[in-house]
Design goal:
By secondary structure, the chain is α+β, with helices and mostly antiparallel strands. The protein has one domain. Strands 2-1-3-4 form a four-stranded mixed sheet. It is elongated. It starts with a strand and ends with a helix. The mean pLDDT is 93.
Length: 74
Amino acid sequence: MKKIIVTTAHTLSKNNLETLKKAFSKKYGKSVEYDLRVDPSVIGGIKVVDGSRAVDMTVSGQLSQLKKQVLAKM
């Protein structure tokens, strides 16, 4: 069984959760266990951790990347 950690700023709606579950079930072709976390500090968006891989599409993650880019140009 595959385990996915999903972090959002607010609890996912039933519709969004079902969409997410369908996408990962299709991707892996097997049963997936979800660890759903709510962290208001991400501000918005979603972060998905799949084993050693992470996809950070949160507002806080984008702001962090922007900060790094601005500081690199100084």
